[in-house]
Amino acid sequence: MLNKKGQVTLFIIIAVVIVAAVIFFLIFRDSILPKKIPSSVDPVYTTFMSCLENDVRQGISLLGSQGGYIIQPTFESGSAYMPFSNQLDFFGIGVPYWYYVSGNNIEKEQVPSKGDMENQLSRFIEQKIKDCNLAIYESQGFNIDIDKKNPRVVTRITKNSVEVDLDMDLSIEKGVDKYNTKKHNIKLNSALGKLYDNAVLIYNEEQKTLFLEEYGVDTLRLYVPVDGVEFSCAPKVWVALNVSETLKDALEANVQSLKVKGDYYQLNKEENKYFVVPVKTESGVNVRFLYSRNWPYGFEVAPNEDQLLIANPVGNQPGLGLLGFCYTTYHFVYDVKYPVLIQVMDESNGVEELFQFPMAVVIQGNQPRKPIEGSEALNLGEVDLCKYRNQEVEVKVIDKNLNSIDANIGFECFGVKCNIGETYNGELKEFFPQCGNGFVLAKADGYELGKYQISTNRENSASVILNKLYDLNVNLKIDGSSTSKNSIITFISENNAKTISYPEQKNVQLSEGNYEITVNVYDDSELNIGATTKEQCYEVPRGAVGGFFGLTKKECVDINFPEQTISQVLIGGGSTEYYILENELASSRTIEIDAESLIKPTSIEGVQTNYELFENKNLDVNLR
Fold first, then answer.
1. Contact at 8 Å (CB) between 171 and 144?
2. Nearest 5°: CA angle at 92, between 87 and 98?
3. Under DSSP, is residue 196 helix (H, G, I), strand (E, B) or coil?
4. Helix (H, G, I), strand (E, B) or coil at 300
5. Is-contact 505 581, C-beta < 8 A?
6. Class for domain 384-465, per CATH?
7. Beta bridge partner(s), residue 341
8. pTM value?
9. How far apart are CA 418 and CA 434, in angstroms?
């Protein structure tokens, strides 16, 4: 009897549970089961969901084309020293840099997280969905009520999809048919998450190994003069602007040749090994590296003389005749800054999806920048001098006639330069760093750079006088006749020095002042100097004991000098001092320089003789 009573009780409990479940289902079935959309109102809801899908796709496209941003960071401009803003202009689209150096020389990172991208996409959809226009259906007898005040969106970006949940009240009626809903869900196939993951992989590898800078240094050393030695009795001359343009062309060609391991293993081309960067991307992901010569670019080279890179020879100076040959060595130091745009692409969904982000490449002193450790940005040699400006100084800029000049004002102290600002009507009142014996720098178009020495820790005013520059054509003559021989012409004044490579350069800008003008004229030569051996003797210690007491002995070695061909030799020139008045510059268009010729040498002794004779040659200078 007890067992039977227990079984009856169990059946009663099960029945109660079943009845409760049925009642719960009947009450909440609209929430449990998706509502069936009446066919009469289906076109309206389909249009609404098309709006949502288009908004999601537009947001995905913006995230991909703008480095993971829809709402971009506040714009930050660059400077003359660091040309980068915090965005790269790519065909009119501002793409935020993931790594750049600010105008005041601070390293910065702005890499969005996946959560940041999801939040931005959600906010974008919340605003865009309000613009969904269903008015055409209202004219067809539909009654549509949509709450556009408080839409709520949650977005999830996975490796191969983007899922969006939208909370937004929507009611559609037509006749007896009615459809109410608040929840709207859409899931799109998209490689956005996978592209972002691979972009971060490449970014982290660059920050760890600086492979972009390493390729940049290789390009620098391969295409422009950095270090070298040549057998020549004439100086080697390069125009800095031409060197810069050559480097731009080389970077444009070499950067786009870079590949990641995924690309390389698909191509399987042996000759591409050098250009394969140490990154293995996921299958199906392609990567492209881009640089354009029209993008921001910083280029500095030292030493240079008025934008000329000059390597002077050794062995042709008076007193070095016993050397027996001439050679030219050079070592130039470059600071180069340029952006590289990295595009990550995938076509697994039938259409090509793209995610791109730029990075600043910084080469300093022929070397890559220092890598960033962890997530903390380092300072690229920033000096506190420019950071702490607490001394107000009034600056006035005028010409010799006391006319006001608007100029860019900088400040230099102990080799560090800071940009201060621009004058208005020739005046500027601004805060400067405190520094003893610094220089206020004033730069204006058409004028020589002006300097005013000041100790900003004691003084609060500076007046800078600028000398007007005048363009002059250069007409070089030898013994009264115009020449087109390769020549180096130098104009040295108290505050400046200008050098031109003639006839490649036939213009010079000069201001009033006293100049030492020097001309070296060269001609082609095939002078051959055979290999020679010279004995060189030294005094060396006479054994361990003798060396202790200062005793020495003579030891000689043979030094072999290789055969060489001198391609250019000195055939004319000289030097003179000449004071140029401003009224002469204002009324003249040409500076005519007449140099004396020298006999073209046919031996190394003749080369030495010409350099000795050159020391006593004068120039005839006229302004016309």
1. yes
2. 20
3. helix
4. strand
5. no
6. mainly beta
7. 290, 358
8. 0.64
9. 12
pLDDT single digits (tens) 427-471:
999 999 888 788 999 999 999 889 899 988 889 999 999 999 999
What span, in angstroms and rounded, lies between the C-alpha atoms of 28 and 30?
Answer: 5
Residue type, 351: V
pLDDT band at 206 (very low <50, low <70, confident <90, very high): very high
Spell out the residues 6+ positions from residue 404 whose beta carbon is closer than 8 angstroms to its own. 396, 397, 398, 423, 425, 426, 427
Structure tokens at 587: 């009324």
Coil, strand or helix: which one is 164?
strand
Cα(2)–Cα(19) distance, rounded to whole angstroms? Answer: 26
Q: Where do the structural domains in the chain lie, given as residue ranges? A: 7-36, 42-73+110-190, 209-368, 384-465, 470-623
Q: Which of the pair, 403 or 612, is modelled with greater confidence?
A: 403
The rounded radius of gyration (Å) of the Cα atoms in the chain is: 38
Helices (H) and strands (E) in the chain, counts: 12, 36
Q: What residues contact residue 549 under an 8 Å CB cut-off, 6+ apart?
A: none
Q: Give 602's Cβ-side CA count (13 Å radius).
A: 1
Q: What's the Cα-to-Cα distance from 604 to each of 487, 529, 608, 611, rounded to whole Å?
A: 20, 7, 6, 11
| Cα separation, 412 vs 464, whole angstroms | 14
How far, in Å, CA of 45 to CA of 212, rounded?
50
